[in-house]
Amino acid sequence: VLGQQIDEILSLDYDGYWDRGYSPDFRKVQGTMRAMLDKGQADQVVAHGMQLWAAADNLIESLDHEGEIGMELGGCMELVFEAVLASSMPSFKRLCWMIVRFLEDEYRLLFDGEEWLKEGSFSAQDWSHAADDLAQRLSSMPSGKGSFSLSFQRSKVLSWLIRALEESGRDGIVELLEKEAPKTGEYGRLVDALEEAGEHEKAKSWAIKGFEDMFEHSPGTAWRLADKMKTMAARFGDHAQVAALEALAFFDRPHLQGYVALEDVTAGLGLWPQVRENLLSFLETGTRPDAAKTPKALPAWPLPAPWVTLPPQSPRKVEFPDHHTLVEIAVHEKRHDDAVARFREWETKSRWGAPSGLTLADAVQKTHPEFSLDTWRKHAESLIERVDKKAYQEASRFLRKMKKLHEETGRAEDWAAYVRTLRQRNRRRPRMMEVIDALEQRPVIKSG
To answer: SS3 string of the chain?
Structure first.
């Protein structure tokens, strides 16, 4: 009966499912599975469940519209897992069976995997068998280097193999990771394992190798390894190297957080004034101070060479002068005159143009109220021109800021004049007139 019910699901008319609302009846399958389990027919449930599992991906891809098919399939597999634990399989084969299902579970249909492993009460010997099985599976897989999909699949098997080695009490995890890191990109995991084993110099060497190996096709992984190198350098007491690695990241991707991080680490070394001047020059010209002869007007670059270097063509493209970062830094250092002047230059000279300036307007409103008022006004009026209720409500936020700043700077009359202008421009837009009335705290008289 169970086989017939599953066959009916697998032979479903997919066009009919979408056109006429046909739906596979998994409740019958689950009910039959439960009845068979109660009768001690666990092996048969496993066999039929595997037939359903083999078709699960196709069912999901063809029929699953809102996740309901996946939920139903997961419910069926819960019963199959229960059947595995009650089956005639040897204990180590049950464990291997479960691990393979977890590896195959592309759509995360299986619930509470750890609970099933706990329920199985698997021994160290069971896990040792699983380790052998996984090692053989791993050796038969293609290298994942250069392919995200292959690397991901290989890493999944590697993770389970490491788990099996740990649960069985067997050695060889570090050696396994040394072999697999170039194939899977799991350098971070290897570095952590070496650090935990107290092999700090070896961990450093692998972190450097991993950075160089991964930077081109997985820069995020490379920079996470650089973060580990900074931690190592700090442990070694080499704070100048920490700063050098921070600077390398800044040259690759300039941003305020990197600037502040460099300030924090170099201030304690007494090097921040020299580093700061060179960083600002870099943001103007794009010329790295650590890779070129320092102009006479600048202090010499005071940091050592970092443990790793960037390739000649870094994948990140930054336009110089880097107006965005220079504005952020000027605000951070409360150089508001410089921030506003830089923003104005950004507006006129950058081929991409400047952004809205709203963040800057908020930051300099006390020192440069005219800039803030002008920025908020332009933004509010652009929203109003959309002639949309939601846009009107959004515009009101900027109008309220304008009102408050006018009042704080003693320009109430200028605000009143602007409101009169707003009313005149929008007299045929009742929704916008309601926003203006609310802004001025007038009672809103709704028509009709």
So the answer is: CHHHHHHHHHCCCHHHHHHHCCCCCHHHHHHHHHHHHHCCCHHHHHHHHHHHHHCHHHHHHHHCCCCHHHHHHHHHHHHHHHHHHHCCCCHHHHHHHHHHHHHHCCCCCCCCHHHHHHHHCCCHHHHHHHHHHHHHHHHCCCCCCCCHHHHHHHHHHHHHHHHHHHHHCCCCHHHHHHHHHHHHCCHHHHHHHHHHCCCHHHHHHHHHHHHHHHCCCCHHHHHHHHHHHHHHHHHCCCHHHHHHHHHHHHHHCCCHHHHHHHHHHHHCCCCHHHHHHHHHHHHHHCCCCCCCCCCCCCCCCCCCCCCCCCCCCCCCCCCCCCHHHHHHHHHHCCCHHHHHHHHHHHHHHCCCCCCCCHHHHHHCCCCCHHHHHHHHHHHHHHHHCCCCHHHHHHHHHHHHHHHHHHHHCCCHHHHHHHHHHHHHHCCCCHHHHHHHHHHCCCCCCCCC
